[in-house]
Write a structure and sequence with these properties.
alpha/beta; Rossmann fold; 7-stranded mixed beta sheet; 5-stranded parallel beta sheet; 12 helices; 33% helix; Peripla_BP_I; Leucine-binding protein domain-containing protein
C-alpha cells in the first residue's frame, strides 16, 4: 500500500507521540513525574580563560545568502548559556557579513583580529567561500552548520549539518517508500539537491512563480508528475508553496531543509497559503517531538529546550542586542548550538583558548551527547562532520509539542518518519 508522506499524521506516530494533543494544546503529562535532565553543560576541566567564539550571521541578504537562518543562529546563545551554567565561561563575538563576499571577509578579519578561539559561520551562501580561505590562513577553525556543499572548503573548515548529497538521498528514499516515482524538481537561490531523479525541472527566479506553476501543470499532464520537489531558500519556498496550493491541489510537496527555518511557516501564511498541508523534508532527529520519545537523544533535546525556556525568562537580548531573546527563542535551533559545543570541547581538550590550539584539537575529534551536543555525534576526521546516515526524512505537523516558547507566530513542527529509526 502506498505510504503517503504524512502517513504518521493520519496513522498515529505523531498522534501517539503527542498523546491527547490538538493543534492548540500542548501534551498533558501522564503518570509519574519524570526527572528532568540537567540544563547545564559541565566540562571535565574548564579552560583558564573564557573561550571567545566568533559568530558570523546575516541580518539582511538576497535569498539563499544567509538571512533566513538568522533566527536559527540564536542556538549559539543557548549553548553559551548552558556552558556558563556548567562553569565554562563562553563569550560570543558577533559579526554581520551582510550576505556579501566583501562583508564576509570583513567579518572574518574582525574576528581573527579579536583572537577568537574559533568561528561558527551561522549563515549560508557562496559569498562565504573567500572568507573561509582567510580564516584558514589565520589558523582559525570555522564550523558551518547551514552550508551543505563541501566543494571548495579549505582545511580547517567543517560542515556540521546535512550535506546536499545526504539530503538528496534521504528525500529520494522517502519518495520511493511513498511510491512517488515521477517528481518534478524546482530549484532556486543556488540550492541544489543531487540525486533526485525528476521527470522535469524548472528554475525559479524571485517573483516569477507563475512560470513554475505552468511548468508543473504541464509536467502533470504530459509526464504524470506525482509530486513537486522544491529546493530553494525559505522565502522562495513559501512563495512557491502558496502558489502551488492554489493551483495544483493534492500534489505532495517535498522541500529542501530550508523549510525548517521559522521564516517558511510565517511566509506561507503571509502569502495566503496553509501550513496544514503535506510537507516532507530531510534533517536530523533533534526537534520538538524528539523530546517526547525516550533515550539519550530525547534527554539531550529536552535539556536544550529547558534551557531555551529558561533563557526566555531572562533579560537577555538576541545576537545583535536589538530585541529581547524571548522574541527570537522560538526559532533558535540545535545545529548552531552543537557547533558552539564542538568548538568549546576542542578548547577544553587542548587546555587552551588559542585559535591554533583549538584548530589542532578539533582535527579528528569526535563530539557526542556526553560532550553536550543535542543532535547526532560529530566526527571531525572528515570535512563533512555529520554522518550521512544521520540525515532522515522529517514530516511536518502543526501540532505543538509544547516544549519551546510560543510567540504566537505561525509554526511547523518536524518529526522523524517512523522508518527513520
Amino acid at each position: 500500500m502506498r505510504r503517503t508522506l504524512v502517513a504518521a499524521l493520519a496513522g498515529g506516530v505523531i498522534a501517539a507521540t503527542l498523546t491527547g494533543c490538538s493543534d492548540d494544546a500542548a501534551p498533558q503529562p501522564q503518570g509519574s513525574p519524570v526527572e528532568q535532565p540537567p540544563v547545564e553543560l559541565e566540562v571535565a576541566q574548564p579552560t583558564a580563560e573564557p573561550v571567545t567564539l566568533g559568530v558570523i550571521a546575516t541580518l539582511s541578504s538576497d535569498p539563499g545568502q544567509g538571512a533566513d537562518v538568522l533566527v536559527p543562529a540564536e542556538g549559539t546563545q543557548v549553548a553559551a548559556y548552558r556552558l556558563e551554567l556548567g562553569g565554562q565561561p563562553v563569550e560570543l563575538r558577533v559579526a554581520d557579513d551582510r550576505g556579501t563576499e566583501e562583508g564576509a571577509r570583513a567579518a572574518v578579519e574582525e574576528l581573527v583580529n579579536a583572537r577568537v578561539s574559533g568561528i561558527v559561520a551561522a549563515t549560508t551562501g557562496d559569498h562565504l567561500l573567500p572568507a573561509l580561505d582567510d580564516a584558514a590562513a589565520a589558523d582559525t577553525a570555522v564550523l558551518l552548520p547551514y552550508v551543505r556543499d563541501a566543494a571548495g572548503l579549505p582545511a580547517g573548515a567543517w560542515l556540521t549539518g546535512p550535506t546536499s548529497t545526504a539530503v538528496g538521498t534521504a528525500l529520494s528514499s522517502a519518495m520511493a517508500e511513498a511510491e512517488l516515482s515521477t517528481p518534478f524538481l524546482v530549484t532556486g537561490d543556488g540550492v541544489t539537491l543531487p540525486g533526485v531523479d525528476a521527470v522535469g525541472r524548472a528554475d525559479y527566479a524571485e517573483g516569477d512563480s507563475d512560470a513554475v506553476v505552468r511548468a508543473v501543470k504541464q509536467a502533470v499532464r504530459r509526464s504524470g508528475a506525482d509530486s513537486v520537489v522544491i529546493a530553494a531558500s525559505a522565502p522562495s519556498q513559501a512563495q512557491l508553496v502558496s502558489r502551488l496550493q492554489g493551483s495544483v491541489t493534492d500534489l505532495p510537496l517535498v522541500l529542501s531543509p530550508e523549510a525548517l527555518s521559522p521564516d517558511f511557516a510565517d511566509q506561507v501564511e503571509d502569502a495566503q497559503g496553509t501550513t496544514s498541508a503535506r510537507f516532507v523534508t530531510a534533517g536530523v532527529d533533534a526537534s520538538d517531538a524528539t523530546t517526547l520519545t525516550s533515550g539519550e537523544r530525547a534527554d539531550a533535546v529536552a535539556s536544550y529546550f529547558s534551557a531555551l525556556r529558561m533563557m526566555s525568562d531572562t533579560e537577555r537580548l538576541d545576537l545583535f542586542d536589538s530585541v529581547p531573546f524571548a522574541e527570537v527563542a522560538t526559532g533558535a535551533d540545535t545545529a548552531s548550538h552543537d557547533a558552539v559545543v564542538a568548538l568549546v570541547t576542542a578548547a577544553v581538550q587542548a587546555g587552551s583558548a588559542s585559535p591554533g590550539d583549538v584548530l589542532s584539537a578539533l582535527d579528528g575529534l569526535q563530539v557526542d551527547a556526553a560532550d553536550g551536543v543535542v543532535g547526532p555525534a560529530l566526527d571531525f576526521s572528515a570535512t563533512e562532520a555529520l554522518p550521512a546516515e544521520s540525515v532522515v526524512e522529517l514530516n511536518a505537523t502543526s501540532q505543538d509539542p509544547g516544549v519551546r516558547p510560543n510567540d504566537g507566530t505561525a509554526s511547523l513542527f518536524w518529526f522523524a518518519a517512523p522508518s527513520a529509526g
